[in-house]
Amino acid sequence: MDEKKERKKTQTLERQKVLGIPVYEETLSVVGKREPRVDARDKVTGRLQYGADIEYPGCLIGKMVRSPYPHARIKRIDTSKAALLPGVRAVLTAGDIPGKNNIGPLVADQPAICDDRVRYIGDAVALVAAESEEMADRAVELIEVDYELLPAVFSVADALKPDAPKIHEKGNLLLTGKIRKGNVEKGFKEADVVLERTYTVPFQDHASMEPEVIWAVPHPDGTMTIQGPMQTPFGVRKTVASVLGIPFNKVQCVQTPLGGGFGGKEDSPLDLGSRAALLALKTGQPVKIEFAREETTLTTSKRHPMTITCKIGAKRDGTFTAFEGTLYNEQGAYASVGALIPPSSGVHIHAISVLSGPYVIPNVKVDGYLVYTNNPYGGAMRGFGAPQANFAHESLIDELAEKMAADPYELRIKNAFELGSETATGQILDHSVGLKDAMEKARTTFDWQRRKGSPPDPDQLQHSDKSRGVGMSIGWYKTGLGAYANGYGVNLYLLEDGSAILSQGLVEMGQGLFTVLAQMAAEALGIRPEDVRVIAPDTNKAPDSGPTVASRSTTVAGMAILDAAKQIRDPLFQSASEILAVPVERLDAKDRLIYDRDDPSRCVELKEAALRTWRTGRRMMGQGWWNPPVSSFDLETGQGSPHFVYSYSAQMAEVEVDLKTGEVKVIQMVSAYDVGKAINPTTLEGQIEGGIAMGLGYALMEEIIVKEGMIQNLTLQNYSIPTVLDMPDMVPLYVEHPNRYGPFGAKGIAEMANIPVAAAITNAVANAIGARIYDLPAKPERVYTTLRQRFDKGFCQ
Ligand code: MTE
Ligand code: MOS
């Protein structure tokens, strides 16, 4: 055993040497440890103040008049009755906007207040600010809007018809996207087996615990503070400034703790923030806009629904020869982050670039269409198009294995990425590819060989109540935006008592970021995590750190923190060297001590050296900046290196299907990840378990139902998400293949944790009932119907 471990270690060290990655393992004292979360105590005791807990004296309540129609022209708005109502301080329509009336994170195609047209049910046509919620509601009711109804489109197929009504000026096709690698015709000819299938996935809601809330506080000098939960404080600054028509430096965005973002709070604060700011500017008073659950569900972005057709070819020995995919992606009314930030980011392009899965396939052709409709709009949601793509390729590969009578594990590992593999976009994966290692770890822990069953016997199924099955999936996901403006800045201050303050712009939204930031800063400075105070992002105080999205935070922040800490360590070690009479080169710092590496008993307390640094007027502050390696992606061929590193995963699930009701119970999930380096294994496991919950919901129950543009399930009573009773036994696992561009070797994991879960579960369902689910979610009626059809058709292949 020990010998095996030793060998593995030598191999790892060798690999690191080859790649030029520093070996940290032996010297780390804070990173890699199960440090408690810095925000835990305040959260569990209820002491933490969320956005809705804040009070401003004399504040007004802001509300929106919303369109009841999915597509209409605004003929007339009469606000006179509302404006006369006592307690109403402002009633605004599009004409009152001093700056630009268009917002949106990538393509500014959404009006802050609709002027001539509404494009979905919930679009805002007028704003009111009043002294109380009741008065604001009353004012909203008194505003008269005359609409001329326009023909609306509710499906991608209808929206693409030549005579379809145009939702936006340039037409309904917002974006295409392609991959062209090798020659798929030739590849399919070389194949012995070819399988083609179509899959659909619905709108999924973020269902964050905290609904949207925002404050706008105007100041006499013409500046404006926006406060609330937001994933993109710097994006909100830019949007609010543009809507108000003032320079960016006159808008300050201050973060309140997020009760869950999951991508949903990337663009919702742009709407709320700019609308609250307009009302605050007009009235000169602080304005709060707070959504009830129904308003959050009705008006904020969702996971994009897609219809995906995939075809795969394989040789008899299992080698994949070709992959072809067509992806219809429903954008809904506005572009949100579905569109493209060059060169390669946005939900649509990302879904295309990962559609053929983490497999080596020499010939790949993918076409994708991103299409406007008059439904609610798709936005960022944990995985940027990857969960949809993953469900498609992992269902397909699983069925291919069935068709070839191959072990789904063996078929996958034969084709899976490893160091040196070439992706569908032609990128050579030259570092940090631990997919096969993660697969192996999942396989042995789950005991796949023993548990994988043969297909169920139809006769037996007909007469049983329950059936169990196992299934697996693998997946991959980027770290970072894959686009311009991916840079990150941090200000790190060491104080003369040896404590530190970290000021930066990425947000804690439950993923554990502030804890890992404190750990990395503590490790880099030689102090303890409890000595580091991470302060809430404030755009007036922190350098632009970009958005808290794309699982980028640990990686980009860590690299910049190392840079900042170095600027402090040099003068600090100078001071210690003077105290200890030991040359600077021999000094190191750890656990609040600075010591002589040759003789660790010669040491000084770090705070003593900090005090000397301060007294001697040396530098006590570092500003770190990090910009990931630049991405490339050719939109015509889909070739390039869109991301500088990827994380990988393997999942194994066991389910039990109730054959009389179609209900699926997940018994166990074993989830293994290649994370580069686990900065904090406990927060990492938290992400893995949360990802299982979200993926389980996607697999079995979550679906925003839209009829004629109207969401039918606005509350959490009829939009089901998993509860603790639905959760399986979970076994989170990880392997560490260091990221050359990551702090201590780390890379992103937070979205990856959700991506491959659904397919593992639905593949296990297929194994349990001998029939496949092609449309998510696998809710009881769908599973039951699928099973009945199978019985009716008979089980023979
Ligand atoms: N985990 C919790 N608890 N709450 C969240 O809102 N958001 C997810 C993921 N995990 C989220 C979460 C999404 S969509 C992203 S992009 C990442 O966290 C961002 O975190 P990171 O950049 O620190 O990895
Ligand atoms: Mo996450 S979808 O990138 O906010």
Task: Please give a structural write-up.
The structure is a single chain. The protein is α+β, with helices and mostly antiparallel strands and 797 residues long. A seven-stranded mixed beta sheet has the order 3-5-1-12-9-10-11, with helices on both faces. Strands 7-15-14-13-8 form a five-stranded mixed beta sheet, with helices on both faces. A four-stranded mixed beta sheet has the order 16-24-25-28, sandwiched between helices. Strand 21 and strand 22 form a beta hairpin. The longest helix is centred in the C-terminal third of the chain and has 28 residues, at 553-580. Residues 18-24 have low confidence and may be disordered. Ligand MTE binds at residues 260-263, 382, 509-511, 513, 548-554, 687, 690, 748, 750-751.
What is the topology?
Blueprint: H1 2-19, H2 40-44, E1 60-66, E2 72-78, H3 80-84, E3 88-92, E4 117-118, E5 124-130, H4 133-142, E6 144-149, H5 156-159, E7 173-181, H6 184-190, E8 193-201, E9 213-218, E10 224-228, H7 233-244, E11 251-255, H8 268-283, E12 287-290, H9 293-299, E13 306-314, E14 320-332, H10 347-354, E15 363-372, H11 386-403, H12 408-415, H13 435-446, H14 448-451, H15 458-462, E16 466-478, E17 488-494, E18 500-504, H16 513-525, E19 532-535, H17 553-580, E20 587-590, E21 593-596, E22 599-605, H18 606-615, E23 621-626, E24 646-658, E25 664-674, H19 681-700, E26 706-707, E27 710-711, E28 729-735, H20 757-769, H21 780-793
Parallel strand pairs: 1-12, 10-11, 14-15, 18-19, 25-28
Antiparallel strand pairs: 1-5, 2-4, 2-6, 3-5, 7-15, 8-13, 9-10, 9-12, 13-14, 16-24, 17-18, 17-23, 20-21, 21-22, 24-25, 26-27
Helix pairs in contact: 7-8, 10-11, 11-20, 16-17, 17-18, 19-20
The structure holds ligand MTE and dioxothiomolybdenum(VI) ion.
Residues 231, 261, 263, 266, 380-382, 384, 549-550, 751 line the site of dioxothiomolybdenum(VI) ion (MOS).
